[in-house]
Amino acid sequence: MIEGRSPECAYWGVMLWNPFMQTYDYRYERIGINKQQATYEPDGSWRLVVAGRDPGHPNWLSTAGHHHGVLFFRWFLAAETPATPVAHVEKAP
Known about the structure:
This protein is 0% helix and 33% strand. By secondary structure, the chain is an all-beta fold.
């Protein structure tokens, strides 16, 4: 689970990459999400779930079968420096 909040910006997004800075195969798996696609909490924050199987969360990102990788966040024209997202591990239901 990755939790965070984005400042006002033109665009923000996160992608799952392999160690060589290549995305996993987005044709078959949801490996990225952006400002327009995200579902937000009532306070404007967001929660992303990175998992090998769909846990039913609207902001799920698939590991596409990989055990290691990189989360790449980016913000364009942000009104302020974004706070660092916070990640923690939860046991699958």
